[in-house]
Give the backbone structure.
Amino acid sequence: MGYDDRDTIYTCLPMFHINGLFCALYAGLIVGAHVVVAPRFGLSSFWDDIIDHEVTAGTHIGAVTTRCCGCRGRMSPRPRSKPCFCAT
């Protein structure tokens, strides 16, 4: 994934989902990055979480991308930084 110890990795997936567990949590722990695990995906709080935690990278599934793209104008302003997300 290319993470390093300067990253803050975000996931809103449950830990029983292999993406949340291995691509976010374990990968972050291995390289010494900060890992933010949201209690659940929330369309209204997604970008606020990214901004508040200064997220630099994250993982999610395609359904999250679809929901975020379909809600233009109804969510918080986009973050000032440009986090990189990997969807599976």
Notes: Strands lie at 8-11, 34-37, 57-60, 84-87. Residues 35 and 88 are 18 Å apart (CA to CA).
